[in-house]
Amino acid sequence: MLRALADTGPLVALFDADDRDHGRVVNFLKAFQGTLGTTWAVITEVTHLLDFSVSKQLEFLEWVERGGIGVANIETKDLAQITGLMKKYADTPMDFADATLVFVADRTDTPQIMTLDGDFHVYRIRGRRAFVSML
Q1: How confident is the model at residue 32, as a pLDDT?
Q2: Of the candidates 118, 120, 119, which has an alpha carbon nearest to the alpha carbon of residue 110?
Q3: Cys-Cys link to 129, which of 88, 93, 118, 125 (CB 3.0-4.6 A)?
Q4: Which of 129, 75, 121, 65 lies closest to 98, judged by CA?
Q5: Entry pTM
Q6: Three-state SS at 57
Q7: Which helix (H) or strand (E) holds 42?
Q8: DSSP-assigned letter for residue 117
Q9: CA-based Rg of the chain, rounded to a whole angstrom?
Q10: 30 three-class SS
Q11: Cα dist from 18 to 10, 13, 14, 15, 113, whole Å
Q12: What element of type H or E holds 64?
């Protein structure tokens, strides 16, 4: 079974029918056979970007709660590596949510990512391996 990480953009598009990528993400997920994971930083960004509708925020959070996506555990001790990634990719720039995804990808050896963001073609897993965009 394929594992993939999910970035903020596709998750927002999934719950915002007016998003230009909504149909594309829905069709991808209908065909996807595997498990999706993300981080709490991404969950926070998604709820922030869905702030135009409390009902959409709640729908998203309930989907997470029902197991629609797994959420990786990141601990305080992991922040040194995460901030190290942010410093390494400062010229991109890399935000905290993206850094947590790269950290988790590195820790779990998961190069597949569901993203609408072009920055992931720059980021590397374990210093060498490129991400594989699923969208």
Answers
A1: 95
A2: 120
A3: 125
A4: 121
A5: 0.95
A6: helix
A7: helix 40-49
A8: -
A9: 14
A10: helix
A11: 13, 8, 10, 9, 23
A12: helix 54-65
Block residue for tokens 């779990």: 108
Q: Which helix (H) or strand (E) holds 5?
A: strand 2-6
- pLDDT tens by residue, 14-43: 999 999 999 999 999 999 999 999 999 999
First to last CA, the chain: 18
| Segment holding 15, helix H or strand E | helix 8-15
Strand order in the sheet with 70-72: 70-72, 34-39, 2-6, 112-114, 132-133
Per-residue pLDDT, 2: 80
Cβ-contact 107, 100 below 8 angstroms: no
The pLDDT tens digits of the residues spanning 74-129 come to 999 999 999 999 999 999 989 999 999 999 999 999 999 999 998 999 999 988 99
pLDDT (mean) for 68-74: 96
What confidence tier does 1 reach under pLDDT thresholds 50, 70, 90? Answer: low
